[in-house]
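Wait, mind explaining this?

_____
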Amino acid sequence: MKLNAIIVEDEETSRIILKNYLSKYCPNVNVVDEAANAEDALTLIRKHSLDVVFLDVEMPYGNAFDVLDKIDDRTFETIFVTAYNDYALEALNAHASYYLMKPISIDELIKAVAYVTDIKTKENVLQDEILVPKVNPIDTKITIPLQDGFEVIETANILFCKADDNYTEIYLNTNKKKVVSKTLKYFEETLCSTSFARIHKSYVVNVNEVVRYVKGKGGRVILTNGKEIMVSASKKAQFLSYFK
């Protein structure tokens, strides 16, 4: 799969080295442009349709995190390239796909590009083709407590579960909602061994009910009932792994 990319790096020599490495060792990366500062980086990101941005941390007119903060809905992956290891945690919090240290290791660069290629390939499959979950149809049941006993629910009838403090709202494909005095974490542990995925801090969804995935920083899913739910960037790769 071809990846459209830009390189954001204030040192010309570093830009040339990275571009040459990509050309030689990662031929599926198409470097469409380059920027030497944060302002130009923003301009190029808004100009091009990008799959990945190779982003230096420290640069004129702001740093990498200033750039990312100004992009509302990222459709590209980010590979940080820096001489400093102090920013690893911030990069993680900014949902970077990879963190490369200078001088760049060719092996690590190849791994980083392969990782992004895998993510973007799965995104395109979800965007352009019929979704085929890699899990078997659900044929189990769970019980939820009631004041006078309990109720048995077919897990196949659950669309999604939503957190509500120490309660969980269970939405069914019968247009009914159940409110249970258990945390979403409980249902994540109970259901995620079957066809359910935690896609957000507030949501667990039945992947068999997903009919569309829309790309973005984390992206969003649309369920059979039309419900649209955001996917956390940190949960994106895990969610994509549920599909062929």
Observations:
- The chain has a mean pLDDT of 88.
- The first strand starts at residue 3 and ends at 8.
- The radius of gyration is 21 Å.
